[in-house]
Amino acid sequence: MATTSIQTKLLAIQKNMxxxxxxxxxNRDEAYDLLQDTTLKVLDNSDKYTxxxxxxxxxxxxxxxxxxxxxxxxxxxxVVSDYSEESYLINATTEFSxxxxxxxxxxxxxxxxxxxxxxxxxxxxxxxxxxxKYVEIAQEMNLPxxxxxxxxxxxxKRLQARLTDYR
Length: 167
Fold this sequence. Notes:
Elements: H1 3-12, H2 14-25, H3 28-44, H4 55-77, H5 101-115, H6 119-129, H7 134-141, H8 145-162
Helix pairs in contact: 2-3, 2-4, 3-4, 6-8, 7-8
């Protein structure tokens, strides 16, 4: 099909394309971007269109597929757009909140119980909750990794038994 014929048909349905793009995106700027991307894609692939096809359907299919591909790409990259006044909270860590007295009491109680454990259980467990990996603890204590894992397991079980009030 001649490029001028496709351009003419494309210009004739621009308003319909914009309405469809807006229905997909629900955002005016994104709808204009999608309209522009679709127009470029249609013009680039004009050689693939045949007269027997419904032109409007062909163009809308291209637009829908572009929208789906862009959406999937955004989900893979974890793009978050928040235009609210509280957008500063998007990247806030959980440390943003204040500890309550109950939280502090619980931590203090757990630490007091841990101090009563023999060193062979207390040290690996303390290192584990501090973020050390099993291999690192094993190297530091000169123990096999399996022994470290079992001591951490038994320390956790002892702690659970002593903290039955929190269940």
